[in-house]
Automatic annotation (TrEMBL):
UniProt keyword Membrane present: no
Molecular function in Gene Ontology: ATP binding; ATP hydrolysis activity
Coiled coil: none
Designated name of the protein: ABC-type multidrug transport system, ATPase component
Organism whose genome encodes this protein: Micromonospora cremea
Residues spanning the membrane: none
Pfam families on file: ABC_tran
Length: 236
């Protein structure tokens, strides 16, 4: 992220070329790592209050008010005074998004936020991210394609540290048009292309394959999905 930000002279009105500017950006930037480190003996309220102090929120009454607001926003009011050690992964992630929002950042960065969550918590978390994106930029780093399809308006694809695509979800999906195939065979899959999925079939196996041309005489074209498109652009 430091390397990315270095392309700009200013972030949020702060000059990141100076120590003071970098400190200001760090305080205002919201970040949720994949594995949030917490103090398990603290309650959710105590933990958020502690993080708020680290972000320079010195006014005690304002800090408590902000913590209370965020506990309500992420539906944690009933868990506010429970110790973090007893929280499930999904509830802990809600604590994580609350701490990331303490300074009301204009840029919120979340890294693999739904990894390991059950379907209900994944849906809840995606809904929260969509709501927060209305007032700020949310940068979602994930390998879970369904999260992108359900949450994002724009997508960027990185391969080996290089940006190889940037555009809307629909634009990315169109990159795989004419490159997705279904092949039913009693033997191994065709050598050409990338196998996306394999399902049992009465005649053997049905393979979904991404390839620039039909991988076999039996191949039938298929409508592309987002996962197909990711494989199509990274295969180049």
């Amino acid at each position: 992220m430091t390397r990315c930000l270095s392309w700009s002279d200013a972030v949020g009105g702060h000059d990141i070329g100076t120590g003071t500017g970098r400190t200001a950006v760090q305080r205002e930037l919201g970040y949720l790592p994949q594995d949030l480190g917490v103090y398990p003996d603290l309650t959710a309220r105590q933990f958020l209050d502690y993080v708020a102090l680290l972000k320079g929120m010195d006014d005690r009454s304002a800090r408590r008010r902000r913590v209370g607001e965020l506990l309500e926003v992420v539906a944690l009011t009933e868990h506010a005074d429970r110790r973090l050690r007893g929280f499930s992964g999904g509830v802990r992630q809600r604590v994580g998004i609350a701490q990331a929002l303490l300074a009301d950042p204009q840029l919120l960065i979340v890294d693999e936020p739904t990894a390991g969550l059950d379907p209900e918590e994944r849906i809840r978390f995606r809904t929260l991210l969509s709501q927060f994106a209305g007032r700020r930029t949310v940068l979602l780093s994930t390998h879970i394609v369904d999260d992108i399809a359900q949450t994002c308006r724009e997508v960027a694809v990185l391969a080996k540290g290089r940006l190889i695509f940037r555009g809307t979800v629909d634009e990315l999906t169109r990159r795989a048009e004419g490159r997705v195939w279904s092949v039913v065979t009693g033997g191994p899959p065709p050598a050409e292309g990338t196998v996306v999925s394999a399902l049992p079939h009465e005649d053997g196996m049905r393979y979904r394959i991404v390839a620039s041309a039909a991988p076999s005489a039996q191949a039938r074209p298929m409508d592309p999905g987002l996962e197909d498109s990711y494989l199509a652009v990274t295969a180049r």
